# Entry
Amino acid sequence: MATRAGTRHRFVTAALAAPAALWMLVFLVLPFVAMLVFAFGRRAPEGGYLPGFTFEQFLNLPARAAAFGNTLMLAPAGALLCLLVAYPVAYYLAVKAAPRHRLVLVSLIVVPFWTSLLVRTYAWMYILGSRGLPNLLSTIGLPDLRMLNTPGAVLVGIVYGYLPLMIMPIYVSLEKLDRRLLDASADLGARPVSTFLGITLPLSLPGVMTGVALVTILLLGEYLIPQLLGGGKVFFIGNALVDLFLQSRNWPFGSAIAVTLVLVVVVVLTVAMRIAWRFAGTRRVDLV
Amino acid sequence: MRAFVSFVYLFLYAPIALVVLFSFNAGRSASEFTGFSLAWYGKAFSNTFLIQALQNSLIIAFTSALLAAVFGTMAALAMERMGARMRLVFDGLFAAAIVVPGVVIGIATLVALAAVFSVLNPALASLWPTATPPQFGLGYFSIIAAHGLFSMAVVSMIVRARIASLGRDIVEASNDLYATPFGTFRQIVLPQIMPSVLAGFLLAFTFSFDDFIIAFFVAGSKTTLPIYVFASIRRGVTPEINAVATTVLIASLFLIFAARFLMREKTMRTSGEG
# Structure
């Protein structure tokens, strides 16, 4: 009896897991293997793929050094800028805001994240474009400013697009903070600044780490924001990949770049998790 | 601090509000509001390319979200039953599906399917009795396959969180009262996890409906709504795009509020039980 029940148990488990397992195998694992094969292959004259085992695609990576440079500079810079804007907001929501308003205020932060990034980035194209903010500024006498297609525009787009993702984990870690610690610190005569630096900030570091890691990782693969707000002048790895796959059609080289991008993501993720574990409790983030 | 926080809220909503406002502009100007009009909506929705793109997006989002909701929930249930090692494998696969950048998911799918088609299509052509064999190509199928990865991972994450907070005693009681395993599932487990399954479905739908970069690689000749919007933005900013953007915005706002409502109800019920 026991073994029959055991067999049935295992059969049902396997049947439940099979569709998702098959999907992941066919559309995630195998495509990755295919991409690896391409990355070590050669480019055919007309842009296709020639079988082979060579490192020439990877040795060619410096040809796209600018894309890597921009991404590796602007992704962390964007994440840190995001953090600077996000921390006060998260602090306000978790500590200062009236509890009865909190739910609405937090919802208002989360909701934009789930609306189209394309539309939200487009809104900034509209604002920073020559007929938008620069036009407005010139009517009050300021000289013609070029805003669109600059690194600054890309950074604004990044902060705008990823702010909710940064605020949420920080908010979650601040909300769990034991208020009595703050009271105790104040009772013992600490100034607000030292209470913040000695208690609040250290205890919110796991949230800060999660936020910075999440935003940095997503930014490493960003395409839309540099494309629309950087206008081909400020381009990321994602833009190089679109060019190599859809325009100049060099799939083996593109695959090598994509594989490298995944490696960078894995390295960033590993480092972030190492640091997060050092700060004790790692926290789950609910974005909804 | 209050001033700064108010400014951030303004920063988050003003750009969107501007796009919405100018979608109702009577004139062509992007900086001067010359009067209220629905003309741009009329123009946008009499555009057959746009309607076709919207239709494609809806079909893809619905199918991928439905498959993700069903298979993701099944996987979440299975993960509760499997050994620790297998669970680690699934955790790893789902984490990869979420963490790997969309641009890489798109490329990997494109490369793999192109390789498969380059073998399959000539083989089919040589075996086919008539001169016009069917050709496999990119389209609905490839977009749904690639969107399903992220969606399935998200659904199973949400459903697993719900299962973790599910009372085990009521399940045991049901078994003790001679309910069949399926009966227990249908009458006890399913009603309790249903809100999170639906929330997962809505999030998956929103993700697929809004996704640009994955579809950009694997859409082939099909056009989804974000691809259409992207292509029109490249041609130049017009009030017609504002109208389309506003429509997309309203659709995803509706979905996300529905999802949040379902998840809210979940937490209320949980606290009621506890």
Observations:
- Residues 137 and 143 of chain A are 8 Å apart (CA to CA).
- Chain A has a mean pLDDT of 87.
- Chain A touches chain B through 79 residues (CB under 8 Å).
- Residues 2-39 of chain A form the longest helix (38 residues).
